[in-house]
Amino acid sequence: MIEVEALAVRYGAAEVFQDVSLRVDDGRIVALLGNNGAGKTTLLRALSGILGGQGGRVVAGTAHGEGLDLTRSRADRIVRAGIVQVPEGRRVFGQLSVEDNLAAGALSVRSRPQARRTKAWVHELFPILADRAQQPAALLSGGEQQMLAIGRALMSSPRVLLMDEPSLGIAPLVARQIMETVREVNHAGTSVLLVEQNTKLALSVAHHAYLMHGGAIVAEGPADELATSDLLLEVSLGKHTASAVPTGGNPHG
Ligand SMILES: Nc1ncnc2c1ncn2[C@@H]1O[C@H](COP(=O)(O)OP(=O)(O)OP(=O)(O)O)[C@@H](O)[C@H]1O
Ligand SMILES: [Mg+2]
After folding, report:
1. Confidence at residue 243, expressed as pLDDT on a 0 to 100 scale
2. Closest to 122 measured CA to CA, from 167, 156, 87
3. Are residues 44 and 164 in contact, defined by beta-carbon separation less than 8 angstroms?
4. Which of 8, 10, 53, 119 is within CB 3.0–4.6 Å of 60 for a Cys-Cys bond?
5. Which residue has its alpha carbon closest to ligand 1 atom 3?
6. Measured on CA atoms in the order 202, 38, 145, 147, is the torsion positive or negative?
7. Could you tell me if the CB of 42 is within 6 A of ligand 1?
8. What is the annotated signal peptide range for this record (predicted)?
């Protein structure tokens, strides 16, 4: 599970957000929605220990997950604890074969039989990755590269997947297939923090959702309730200014 409390992050002097609280309970798919520049990727960086490398830092608040203080843990330690990010823009190793990309995801797995079993499962989820095993990843289509990026993350048998806009730049049909796979992965026991600008798609698979705007979480609730919220519509249409947003209570408190 992941638990974020009143987190504030800056790049240099520039504040990205000042008050973000959210939680991802075991077994859940939680969507994090928000417009361009809202700070979604930045939050995922803070959770996976790669914020410092990007010139960012946590200036207030806490983030815990799988028994670790995530704001004070190294990226490799966080991956070994089971929190694994599928980065925005896919970022597969283009020169390496599909097979070797998957193998790279299993570097932290000590048990060979377990790695073999996981690979068989990944091939079942995405048969194209078996068909193209020997090809350089760069030759895959955008949607197939997204599948590879997810497959690579799954190779380390994560307990929590942090997914950054898996539908970005991908044909709607393929994006829906990927969401179905997210649901399957979740059924198999992995919880998911799903960052998306495609709110409809994300809310179709998520249990719970948060909306980030103007440096804070401005709405949250069960996915089906948030789907019909006026605030979500106004924010996505750019009609809302942060100061006009009611803060609301914390249903977990
Ligand atoms: N490494 C960085 N250094 C300085 N500023 C950054 C850095 N990365 C992001 N920012 C800024 O921080 C803010 C939040 O960016 P972030 O990438 O987290 O937004 P996002 O919600 O993921 O947006 P998108 O939906 O476009 O991916 C933006 O104003 C962005 O310009
Ligand atoms: Mg982003």
Report:
1. 47
2. 156
3. yes
4. 8
5. 11
6. negative
7. yes
8. none
Asked if residue 190 lies in contact with residue 184, where contact means CB atoms within 8 angstroms, the answer is no
Q: Is the CB of 16 under 6 A from ligand 1?
A: yes
* Side chain identity, residue 133: A
Ligand 1 pocket, 101 CB below 6 A? no
Q: Are strands 29-34 and 208-213 parallel, antiparallel or unpaired?
A: parallel
Distance between CA atoms of 49 and 35, rounded to whole angstroms? 23
Tell me the pLDDT tens digit for each residue of 132-152.
999 999 999 999 999 999 999
Q: Rg for the chain (alpha carbons), in Å? A: 18
Cα-to-centroid distance, 97 and ligand 1 (Å) = 31
Q: What angle do CA 145, 84, 174 make, to 5 degrees?
A: 30
> Which pLDDT tens digit goes with each residue over 167-187?
998 999 999 999 999 999 999
Q: How far is the CA of 115 from the centre of ligand 2 (A)?
A: 30
Distance between Cα 63 and ligand 2 center (Å): 19
Please indicate whether residue 36, judged by its CB atom, sits closer than 6 Å to ligand 1: yes
**Where do the domains of the chain lie, and which CATH numbers do they carry?**
26-44+88-244 (3.40.50.300)
